[in-house]
Amino acid sequence: MNRDAMEAGLRTRSEVLGATHVATAMNGDDFSRPLEELVAQYCWNEIWNRPGLDRRLRSAINVAMLAALNRPQQLRLHIKGAINNGLSRGEVQEILLQTAVYCGVPAGMDAFRVARDAFADLQTPASEP
Fold it and tell me: Do 45 and 5 form a contact (C-beta atoms < 8 A)?
């Protein structure tokens, strides 16, 4: 394990998804810990900390991919992260509409349901575009 890479990844993950989520993930059992360390180093440091894309765009890409893959738990987390990274509710809506067209209406329907729940968790005003 590369301690510096893991710490950098944990910082980024905390800034995007929230410190509570990261603390919970990292305080898992011995079985899950190696996966969480891999995620911190590889996903959140090696990819999210690359200079080629900003966090806002990375969040938009993740929302689309997770909706297309029908991964509701991760989608909910990353919609919250997308809002933290500056995407508006309206931009998330547009991403999900485009995903529905290119990846299938059932995936889009599920993604919209997940987004509504994520927005409710964030207490995002319904009137926000």
Answer: yes
86 closest CA partner among 119, 49, 125, 59: 59
Within the chain, how many helices (H) and strands (E) appear? 7, 0
8 Å CB contact between 56 and 16: no
Site of tokens 């059992």: 29
Rg from Cα positions in the chain: 15
Give the DSSP per-residue string, 69-126: TT-HHHHHHHHHHHHHTT--HHHHHHHHHHHHHHH-HHHHHHHHHHHHHHHHHHT--T
For the whole model, what pTM was predicted?
A: 0.89
At 13-40, the pLDDT tens digits run 999 999 999 999 999 899 999 999 999 9
